[in-house]
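**User:** Here is a favour to ask of a fellow structure person. Please take any protein you like and set down a full record of it. No explanation is needed for now; the record alone will do.

**Assistant:**
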Amino acid sequence: MLFSFAFVALALAQQPGPVDARESGALPEWAAKRAITVGAALDCATGPGEWKYTVAGSEIRVRPHKEIFVRGHDRSGVGWRVQASYPGDGGCRFFAHDLDRNGYADLIVLTANGGSGPAGVTMTVVAFDRLGRPVPWQATGPFVLDGNRLLNLVDLGSDGQTELLFPYVEEYGMKGETAVHISLYTISDGHFRRVDGMFAGRKFPVENPAGVRLEDEPNLTNAVEATAPTETITRVQPRRKTTCWLEGISITDGGIVLAPASPASRECEGYLQFQHKGKIPSPLILVVDLPKEGRVVDIDHSSDEIIRRVVSLKMAVAFAGRSCETGCRPLIMWARPR
């Protein structure tokens, strides 16, 4: 069965037909009025087997409920590949739209996950920088599709540039009150950066109620600034069946603050150990620029082989963002030769 808009609406609002953004993640009316058009969609089938497509010059293979694989070549002809675990239990829908107007059509994938209620849509973006290399991004939340518009993608500045609005909902207090933070992300050269402060006459994040701190709020910034410190991985702890919290590590808005590991730190479902003995949980997304093979992207897939390459080559790694969908961990790790 093809992945239809009715399926997306069902996953988001538990009802068929068009979705009211206000019912599916607190997107306000002013946001919906600024939503951009992402164009016609390509539907993925949900049946068995492998499905192949070519979208905007990229070859896409989908194994429903298992993995999504994308590959192509950058501007200089060097190959790249993206491998991602299939992030839902329903079908998926592809869009091709140049989000940052740099001349490359970025790939947007919506995948329904019916078990997550109103926030049950995962959006995976394979954007491209000015050299034609993939820049990955992924989050699960209340992404609202209305025809050929994705209401979370907006042009707030009326300047033709695309921004992302991400509503995060969390219970707080002793009585289970609900707070909503709507964060804004700019998109430039394939990279998403969170805005903290004024943008187009509004202050972000938009808080309702104001002043409530949300413990597990994500930071979906995937950009590492040129001045960010780098580390060297010395060990990879294999994945285990249980997750954990690690002591001595801070995941902040600016990325990862590494500290010496405490003797009380527990082994968790995959972690990375560094030359100064610090540890962090394995990131959701890995980006590795290999000397001869080009860029390799791994999104919550099977990263052991790639990480071993990073360790053996003593590559420089840096981190950005924070994802708390399955225990808080870095959103993304970038690795490159020293």
User: Anything to note?
Assistant: The CA atoms of residues 184 and 195 lie 6 Å apart. The chain has two domains: 5-208, 233-336. Confidence is low (pLDDT under 50) at residues 1-25, 240-269. The helical segments are 5-13, 29-33, 304-312.
